[in-house]
Amino acid sequence: MKREEFEIGKEFHCGEGIWQTTDIGARVIAAIRVDQVEVVELGQEAKPRLFDRATAAKEGWFNGPPYVVAERVFDENDMKSCFTNPEAGTAA
Known about the structure:
The structure is a single chain. The chain has 92 residues and is mainly beta. It has a four-stranded antiparallel β-sheet. Strands 4-5 form a two-stranded antiparallel ribbon. The protein is built from two helices and six strands; from the N terminus they run βββββαβα. It has one domain. The chain has helices spanning 53-58, 76-79, and strands spanning 11-14, 17-24, 29-33, 36-41, 47-52, 72-74. Helix content is 11%, strand content 35%. The longest helix is centred in the middle third of the chain and has 6 residues, at 53-58.
């Protein structure tokens, strides 16, 4: 995808995840992963838990900004690997 194809609030695919655009900069975009959320509880042992999309959304993980989940920055090189049409695996 090209930078101008991203829209705040719209989803796209990259790698194994589904992402939602949260911010668009001059040369980068920021996004949160919305198909799953990994939570690590600290204590005697770090215990990662994986929430599916429905559970994470119900618990408010995707409400923002600011977002509870970490935003990832996609630069110009990362954007080349993003697509909106999962069947084709390419930009729509």
